[in-house]
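Minutes, structural biology subgroup

Action item carried over from last meeting: produce the structure token record for Chorismate mutase domain-containing protein (Actinomadura napierensis). EB confirmed the sequence was re-checked against the source entry. Recorded below for completeness.
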Amino acid sequence: MHDQVIDATGASGPSCPACGTPEGAAASRAPLLRVPLPVADDLATVAQARAAIDGLDAALAVLLERRAAVAALVQRLKPVGGFAGRNPGREREIVDAMAEHAPSLGRDHLTKIMNAVIEAGLDAADR
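Output recorded by EB:
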């Protein structure tokens, strides 16, 4: 396993051990999320694999919560928000960008995943 910091542009790289910021990156007011990214070949037992999944799930929960908060802001800023304001073109752009970072998942799987994320975010914004 190794730590990697993913910046706002989606670029990834090693992080500075002293401060946790990506090497060469300017300091940000937003907190960084440091997540060990397991390599499946390095996991030898079910317990190790489940521990790796638990760590990824915890980070994913934080990211999903942050994404939902930002998406709720977008809904308030748009002339027509909520489900009626969905933009299929923008959603395709999101999936296309994600497919570049996760090609092994494939565009079809990412479309399903992001549809669920977007719909859950819209539901959360309505609360």
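Discussion: Residues 8-22 have pLDDT under 50 and may be disordered.
Next step: EB to file the record with the rest of the batch.
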